[in-house]
Design goal:
Elements (H helix, E strand, L loop, with lengths): L3 E8 L2 E8 L2 E5 L1 E3 L12 H6 L5 E4 H6 L3 H6 L3 H5 L5 E4 L2 H7 L3 E3 L4 E4 L6 E4 L1 H11 L3 E3 L11 H21 L7 E6 L5 H14 L3 E4 L8 H11 L9 E3 L5 H8 L5 E3 L2 H7 L2 E4 L2 E4 L19 H5 L2 H9 L3 H27 L3 H14 L7
Parallel strand pairs: 4-14, 5-6, 6-10, 10-11, 11-12, 12-13, 13-14
Antiparallel strand pairs: 1-2, 2-3, 7-8, 8-9, 15-16
Helix pairs in contact: 6-7, 7-8, 10-14, 11-14, 13-14, 14-15
Length: about 375
């Protein structure tokens, strides 16, 4: 294995660890801001680092279409291209092919599709996905898998799981091991416990640097997602990081960490920031609402982000309602800071053996709702 993962402490199923890579260390559990097209939207890379993020995510599908992996490679790789020296995980592009491409056809070989940008035809195979991620110089590469929408029939979930396992084999064969770089396999199987177990065992048999749980946050309830984690995580190795793809809301992160997940990514904090939704210790806040128009208080008086340190709710309300770019920047910075502080709080709680009480306080504070409006 080419990545070094050290498990420092457990609190129930929750894990405190460290992942050492060619581009720096990652303390887990961790949240990865999404930088789909070589940028975390509305954020400069140094601002992303200031939130506490140690690793970000890029996307194979988007970058292969524009500006192309070959061009990024000529310019020194994704780290140099976007001025992010830290670790980068690139997802394989499979989910975007299924959800964004105008037309796609899945075969044993791979996925043939038309670009959502200009309709040009492409084929993404496990080997091509790995090649693109190598050109990008991804610290962590993901296997190509077939991700289907839920709910789905057991037959459809079984077909996608087995195809993903065969693609996992081919992805492993195509990957070029290097010190400090790694390849993750992706567990599929929908919400079916038996299929998830078969997928996990098959991937462990192939052998990967880490294991992702894919195919969730695609239409199932939080209860179904947690139940799927409960039957999947026990089949994953203790000495490898575990990554829950595309998740999620703050309560999703807390519940998944309690079930042994180490890594997360989601567009929610950045996308919500651009549309005026803030995540706070007392739940979410829609800054567009008129109640904030004359409120001199910060979004969250305990938050360290620039939006909360320097600006009022009234000003943020004005920016967002006026569609000013600064509004998206400040709201995104706040949300990413909140997510990183939540992860840091869970790491500290695991270290001190009190994650249960931390989670209880989190849910109590969220249930309180936003602070009362000014009279």
């Amino acid at each position: 294995m080419t990545l070094r993962y050290t498990l420092h402490k457990q609190d129930g199923a929750a894990r405190l660890g460290r992942l050492e890579t060619a581009h720096g260390v990652i303390d887990t559990p961790t949240f990865m801001p999404v930088g789909t097209a070589a940028t975390v939207k509305a954020m400069a890379p140094e601002w992303v680092a200031e939130t506490g993020a140690q690793i970000i995510l890029g996307n194979t599908y988007h970058l292969m279409l524009r500006p192309t992996a070959e061009r990024i490679a000529k310019l020194g790789g994704l780290h140099a291209f976007m001025n992010w020296p830290g670790p980068i995980l690139t997802d394989s592009g499979g989910f975007q092919v299924m959800s964004l491409a105008q037309l796609n056809k899945v075969t044993e070989q791979g996925v043939a599709f038309q670009s959502h940008i200009d309709g040009a035809r492409y084929e993404l195979t496990p080997e091509r996905s790995i090649e693109i991620q190598h050109l990008l110089d991804a610290t962590i590469t993901m296997q190509l898998d077939e991700c289907i929408k839920l709910p789905a029939s057991e037959l459809r979930m079984d077909q996608a799981m087995r195809l993903s396992l065969r693609w996992a084999e081919r992805s492993k064969q195509a990957f070029k091991p290097r010190a400090g770089y790694g390849l993750f396999g992706i567990v599929q199987g929908g919400t079916n416990a038996g299929l998830r177990e078969q997928s996990a065992n098959g991937l462990v048999g192939i052998g990967f640097d880490g294991y992702a749980v894919g195919g969730l946050a695609v239409g199932e309830t939080q209860e179904e997602m947690f139940a799927t984690l409960d039957v999947t995580v026990p089949h994953l190795p203790q000495d490898r990081p575990r990554y829950l793809m595309g998740v999620g809301k703050p309560s999703d992160l807390v519940g998944a960490v309690q079930r042994g997940i180490d890594m997360f990514d989601c567009v929610l904090p950045t996308r919500s920031g651009r549309t005026g939704q803030a995540f706070t210790r007392r739940g979410s806040v829609n800054i567009r609402n008129a109640r904030h128009a004359e409120d001199p208080r910060p979004l969250d008086e305990h938050c360290r982000c620039p939006a909360c340190r320097n600006y009022s709710r009234a000003y943020l309300h004005h920016l967002v309602r006026s569609d000013e770019i600064l509004g998206a920047m400040l709201m995104t910075a706040h949300n990413l800071t909140y997510y990183q502080d939540l992860m840091r709080g869970m790491r500290q709680a695991i270290a001190e053996g009190r994650l249960g009480s931390f989670a209880g306080a989190f849910h109590r504070d969220q249930a309180l709702g936003d602070i009362e409006p000014l009279p």
